[in-house]
Amino acid sequence: MLSDGGVRRLFWIRERLRLASSVGSVEKRVLDVNVLAVFLVKGHPGSEHVSSVVEAGLRGAYVPLIVDVLPFRAFWIMTRRWGLPEKESAAAVEHFVKTYEVPRYPSLSREAILEGFRLAEELRHDVFDCMYVALALQEKANGIVTTDTDFEKLCKSVGLGYYNPVPKEVLKRFKEQNK
Hints:
Layout: H1 4-21, E1 27-31, H2 33-40, H3 47-58, E2 62-65, H4 70-81, H5 86-99, H6 110-123, H7 127-138, E3 143-145, H8 151-158, E4 161-163, H9 168-177
Helix pairs in contact: 2-3, 2-4, 4-5, 6-7
């Protein structure tokens, strides 16, 4: 027998799947911060793999959804984690935001923030990842584009598509880039 929470979750997943199947001809995908940062750094080991998927969205194959603060977070990753020059990193982020009109930059609603925390507790998963899921649900997106393999199980558990364009052997090289 399912608990009230289990029944609510089952209903929620069925509703999510219904909404995803009724979306129309152009799908929406949430991009995570790593995908955006890798896309902006052409010398990154995953750049060629990520670029083709992001560029497809920028050409209209799907609508890229980027949480409104992610360009700042991508800049932080590029400069603080990868040690890239601030001036060039800022120029890359600014170029992306100015050049491409297709991406949307939604904010998380109060309800989505609460849903992200609920999901993190219920699914026993990182709250930051669950915020991407909450955004995808809020925006009725089809899935999440990420380089993070932890999202595969998470997306499946809530009926979202998981799009990781980087082969596993290349993902291993990311650890070197992230030192």
